[in-house]
Amino acid sequence: MCDACGRIRERPGSDVCEHCGAGADGPEEQSRTDPPAVLGGGARRRDRDEEGRARNARPRDGLGRPLPYGAPGVARQPEGVTRTPAEALTEAQRLLDAGMPFHAHEVLEDAWKAAPEAERELWRGLAQLAVGLTHAARGNAAGGTALLDRGAAALAPYAAAAPHGIDVAGLLAWAAELTGRLADGPAAGDGAAGPGPVPAAETAPRLRAGGG
């Protein structure tokens, strides 16, 4: 996910977000507490994973927000894990229930990348809903609404015959209810920009019918 615009990166290995143009190490990813490792020209060396891909190594909190280097954080999900659809849904639900929708989005994004063409928008929509909840839990009503709307639009075509037991109708209703909550302004005169952060765990949806 791009930390600048909040949209899911379709080319995660790229140095620049294809949606907003932000660099992978944009202002939100840098800090005065970053480690001092630099290249000859003075630029900070980019963090990379074990396979050499650009991947910011700063710790993150339970909602995926970057923390200073050296701070205790919540481990991110490993990338590129192969899971069956049932395994992906079970792991994503576990993370949602634990109040970690950002981490659930990483699981669902893996499923989206591995899905057959006919199901790609289904998994992408689920990942976008998780990002929408992440923004809502961070107090970003505008970002939450935008991602929830995109996720619902991607899921809607699957409502008639939802695969893998996914409760598409229930998720669409959940997204509509949450966007309605995010649209409710604060009490007059309090100066806030929205209803405030929502509790991530308590607000998490059920991905499969029957609560599975």
From TrEMBL:
InterPro entries: DUF309, TTHA0068_sf
Region annotated Disordered, chain positions: 13-80, 186-212
Biased composition, class Basic and acidic residues, residue ranges: 44-63
Pfam families the record matches: DUF309
Protein name: DUF309 domain-containing protein
Organism: Streptomyces siderophoricus
